[in-house]
Amino acid sequence: MIRGSHHHHRRDPKLYDKSCDEEAFKLFLADHKKAAAHFHRAEHRQRLCKAIEEWHHQAQSAPSQISATDSEYKKLLGSSVEFRHANTKAVPKPTEELIPKSVPDYFDWRDKGAVGDVRDQGYTCGACWAFTAVGALEAHNKIKNGGNLIGLSEQNLIDCNTQSNGGCHGGWTPNAYVFVQSNKGIDTQPAYPYTGVDGTCHFAPDKVGGRSAGFVQIPAGDEEAMKTAVAHIGPISVSIDASSRAFSSYASGIYDDTACDNTKHNHAVLIVGYGTDAAQGDYWIVKNSWGTAWGEGGYVNIARGKNQCGIANYPSYPLV
């Protein structure tokens, strides 16, 4: 369940693109009600219409291959990533910095200007691995180097990190840190803007905005070490099960869902802080990549201390 206030976004029919086939739209919505929360994002209306039309065509030609399952739905929206461990290099052993120590009861890197704006991966690109990697790299480069927070390019990773990750077809976040290290940097977001589709690599060494020196894998299941890392080092990347309908329609409160499977990992997000609610308990402050219209301005508070959705299975952060 989700503790705290909860509501579903209402869709405004005035914002629908008239180019969408009405019958296809109705069929799509009937099978994928949870998509309604995202339909008011005008910048993705064209891509959504194309996806609906493709889905409708496939449903008509091969109905046995198209089902109203969460996996099919997430492939359509680009919000499901089948993480792959292939080519993940050995990682440094956890340092003494990760030994649980005294930390404040509440911490949020947004308060220190180390977290970039919430971005939107869109409906057709399953590259959440790139978004959480970029969010972490932006934060850790800012924390280490000071100055202004520099926006980095997810598209640079999607187009160029093709040996160990799969672009819009999924990936594994630590592979991105290793790639940026071997690539000697990652371009800025303005220099290499997001397109939401797999493209040809055009990395420009003179446009580098951030670097990586590898990464640290936090011991699995150790949420106290995660808490220490967040408070003393910086935001951390995690992978979770985001297949529950309650997650896709999350609006506010603490997400504590018994339907969430802590052994599945199909979505990557970024922990930027943590807190404790007197009535509802401990939680992580988590940045998503589904735009600001989702959740609490693009964020979700996930229950802490119980490995909710597998959040403590693969936590990591980049070295810079």
TrEMBL record:
This is Peptidase. Belongs to the peptidase C1 family. PANTHER family: CYSTEINE PROTEASE FAMILY C1-RELATED (PTHR12411). PROSITE patterns: THIOL_PROTEASE_ASN. It comes from the Eukaryota. It comes from Pristionchus pacificus (Parasitic nematode worm). SMART domains: Pept_C1. GO terms for cellular component: extracellular space; lysosome. Transmembrane segments: none annotated. Pfam families: Peptidase_C1. GO terms for biological process: proteolysis involved in protein catabolic process. One of its GO terms (molecular function) is cysteine-type endopeptidase activity.
